[in-house]
Each structure stands twice: as structure tokens, then as C-alpha cells.
Amino acid sequence: MIPNHTYDSPNKGGRRLETLGVVIHSTRGGASSPAQEWAGTINWFLKQASQVSAHRVVHVDGANAQLVADELVAWHARSYNQTWLGIEVVQPKSSHTFTESQYRTTARIIVDWAEKFGFTPDRDHIKGHDEIQAGKTDPGMMWSWPHFMQCVKEAMMPNVGGKFQTVHSLIKPLIGEAVAEAVNQDEFWSQLFERGMMQQDRAGGVHVYLEMK
């Protein structure tokens, strides 16, 4: 996913030799508004004295900023820095909820990274900061992992746009009634995924498997 804003944090290393997955963080800077939290996080990552950074920051409205190039090492999770990407989701305080736009944007970014660097976008390769580093509590209890992983699954589905009706009508005779009655493309592809009729390979290609009747 193309960033809405691009910056160049001085807090980074060289190219990663391999990419194993992504660590999700939340900002928790205590700002009085999400807008101030977003701006404060970016400014902090641009200060060399902070010695911290992340590859992307995701605002409550779904906008995202790039602070470190995808291929480079960002300083976000100590021993994970050399092999894991880092993404910060704006959350001024631990009690603040995350928005649907944040879930969707974060999922799309991670799916793009998975295709680019060749890892599987599942819970073995997507971790919370609180899961990999002692003493960290973000993204915490307000982050819904089941909902987020559903967003990841949906982000992996092909975007057929206006071709949905054509594709739907062509394969309707070949699929179960529940799938055939799907009313929109998101529901349609979700039904195929749940039934194991559609899979995505490591290169990002999508394959649909239909049983002829």
C-alpha cells in the first residue's frame, strides 16, 4: 500500500537480509487528540536523539506515513529489528479504541509486505509488541486480533471491481448455494476462502478451486 506521506528517519540500519514478519505497535504517547498523537509520533521518529523508528505509522483515518524504507532496518523492537518490519498504529492512550480504518490499512500494508518479502501473513508472522518483548503492553487488549486477522484475510482477496457480476454468474452453477447467493464481492470471496476453494500462493497469485458438478 502506497504511503500517504513519506519521511526519512535517521534512526535506521542497512538492508534486512531476510524478513520473517511484522511487529504491530501502538503509539501511546498520551497526546490530547489523535491528530496530535500522529504528528508527535512522526516528529519523534524524525529526531535522531530518540533512537527509535518504525517503517509505517497508521492514523485513525487510515492514512499512513512511511518513516523508514521497507527494505531497511527500522529500530522498533530490539532483537527483532534485523528480521521483522515494524508498524505503529496511532493510539494516544491504552484505553482508546482502534478504528476500522486503522485495522483495514494495517492489514493492507502487511499483506503487501507479505507478497513483497515472501512471508505468510498469519499469526506466526504477525506479532504484537507485547508478545515479543518483556515489559511492553502495546497494542494491548483494545486491539482485536480476531477482527484484524479477518481484515488480513479480506485484504488478500482479489479486487475484481466491476467484474464481480460477470465472474459470479459464470461460476454460480459450479459452487454451493451459500456462495452463489453472496450479495457482494467481499462476501463472495470470503465464502470461497472459508470453503478452501480459493488460496493465495507465496508470490501473491490467487487460485480458485471449483469442483465440477
The third-level CATH topology of the largest domain is Lysozyme-like
Distance between the termini: 39 Å
Query: What structural category characterises the helix and strand content?
Result: alpha/beta
Q: Please, how many helices? A: 7
The general outline is globular
Helix content: 25-40%
CATH class of the largest domain: Alpha Beta
Describe the biggest sheet? 6 strands, mixed
* Count of domains: 2
Strand order within the widest beta sheet? 1-5-4-7-3-8
CATH architecture descriptor of the largest domain: 3-Layer(aba) Sandwich
The fourth-level CATH homologous superfamily of the largest domain is: Peptidoglycan recognition protein-like
Strand content: 15-25%
Following the backbone from N to C, one meets helices and strands in this order, namely EEEHEEEEHEHHHHHEE
Q: What's the rounded overall pLDDT mean?
A: 84
Return residue spans where pLDDT drops below 50 for at least 5 consecutive residues.
Answer: 159-171, 201-213
Give the total of beta strands.
Answer: 10
**Measured on Cα atoms, how large is the radius of gyration?**
19 Å
